[in-house]
Amino acid sequence: MKNRPPANQHPRNSRLSCPSCRTEVINWNDDYIIKPVNDILVERIKYQIIDKIDDQPISIRWAGGEPFMSEAYIDLFDYIIQTGKSNIQNIIQTNGSLLQQKQILVKRLLPYISELRISFDPASKETYKNIRVNGSWEKLLDNTVWVRDVIKRSGFATQLTADFVVQKDNYKEIPLFVKLCKEL
């Protein structure tokens, strides 16, 4: 029986961890047990749910890890785009680390995103390195400005929001976070 590598050693993960969320990085894209199950679920969601959506407005919230890293989510995003069903509006919660890396997908998906929620959690580089271990504060800010500008230029109604999960390591930065959001 094939041994599964520890999740925090997975070669394709984004290597971001969040001590307040979980103690390890998780990526199921190549897991020999989970991936086949995900593939079956994705096909069922496509044909038994998405295909059955008519003209009624539907919102889907994508969260739990990094949606732009998940092959299952990306497959479903592509399928929604292919259907052209603009009544399916997506609320996507992201850590913001892959927005420019996945810019082709992000730009194609924007007409179908009603809200793009970027998780900041801290409001400073120093706190970010403790809360988003192995993340890049500069990359987060750069990706946020990039997607903000793409949304403005495109004229899409996508609402860009910033999330801040209050925890003992960041609660003192709430006023700074409000200031940062106004600047962005």
Structure in a nutshell:
The protein is α/β, with parallel strands linked by helices and 184 residues long.
Shape: globular
DSSP strand tally = 4
Major beta sheet summary: 4 strands, parallel
Q: Structural class from helices and strands?
A: alpha/beta
N-to-C series of helices and strands = HEHEHEHHEH
Q: What is the overall pLDDT average?
A: 87
- For the termini, the CA-CA separation is 50 Å
Polypeptide structure, described:
Strands 1-2-3-4 form a four-stranded parallel β-sheet, with helices on one face. Helices cover 39% and strands 13% of the residues. Helix 1 packs parallel to helix 2. It is α/β, with parallel strands linked by helices and 184 residues long. The N terminus is likely disordered. The N and C termini lie far apart (50 Å). It is built from six helices and four strands.
List keywords for this structure.
184 residues, 4-stranded parallel sheet, alpha/beta, disordered N terminus, globular
Q: Can you lay out the helices and strands and say which pair or pack?
A:
Blueprint (H helix, E strand, L loop, with lengths): L33 H16 L8 E5 L8 H13 L4 E7 L8 H7 L3 E7 L5 H7 L5 H18 L4 E5 L10 H10 L1
Helix pairs in contact: 1-2
